[in-house]
Amino acid sequence: MKRTALVAGTAVAALAATVLWSFSVGRFPVSPADVLRALLASVGGGESGLAPNVEALVLQVRAPRLVAALAVGAALAAAGAAYQNLFKNPLVSPDILGVSAGCALGAGLAILFALPIVAVQGLAFAGGLAAVALVVAVGAWVRGRDPILTLILTGVVVGSLFGAGIALVKYVADPYNQLPAITFWLLGSFGGALPGDLAVAVPVILAGLVPLVLLRWRIDLLALSEDEARSLGLDVSKLRLGVIVCATLVTAAAVALAGVIGWVGLVIPHAARLLVGARFARVLPLSLVLGAAFMLAVDTLCRTVAATEIPPGVATAFVGTPVFIVLLAATFRR
Description:
Elements: H1 2-24, H2 32-44, H3 52-87, H4 99-112, H5 117-142, H6 147-172, H7 178-187, H8 195-214, H9 216-220, H10 226-231, H11 236-258, H12 264-276, H13 280-302, H14 312-333
């Protein structure tokens, strides 16, 4: 218990430090003291005493991007932890049921037909939900002996189908305008996050995260065999469907907001399990904090280490691969 409290406290402190660091660095550096003054004045409604351009940089330029990175990181990490516990497989990621492919196809179609950015995000979200709904419907129709394996295999098939749709959209897209826009969207970005986007995406993410957090003790029982869970009075089918719905909501909202960003939902739950053990009730809260801090740190590096901004989807792959190998080695050596 003391170890868990220590890990949790350290993670929260690291998250707070990452937030302050991210606010401070960039093409136009701002001192941590000025960042705190701007934030406190914004919350309290008083005057910060800062130059208007500095206050605008902190509150209007960097704050929406930070909130987007924090929300997406927490969402993907929580969805990954939930799916890994549900499917009893540590190699499962949030896009196992095809949600990312569905989002990508929806966004690609919106860009192909030159729809506004609101429609791009809306169709991306709808595409992710449609992909998972198709997986669940096909899985229920097939009625395999192992429902978990049936869902995984169906997710692979549906993901491949939507992936073919993405390839077709890219093939017929205008190579000078639409194709680059689709490609850039698929690589992910927080640069275009606006307060209006956050006002839509963040409540959806919270609507999926809150039930997962409140039911984490029950979800823990899904790691048992189905017969053992039923003997404890658990309605396995309903809880399993609830986890899928919540994890799909947060993943679809995250992808619709920032594009396809991989590895967060795979690596972060592994790190959390290594720190606090395999119990989902402990892994989920820590995954939320670590995922938010990791995503924010990666995005901050993406916009500061080079003259041109690096897409976070690329950066998470470069960072996530060696980190995942180290985590696997540490896990197997325990």
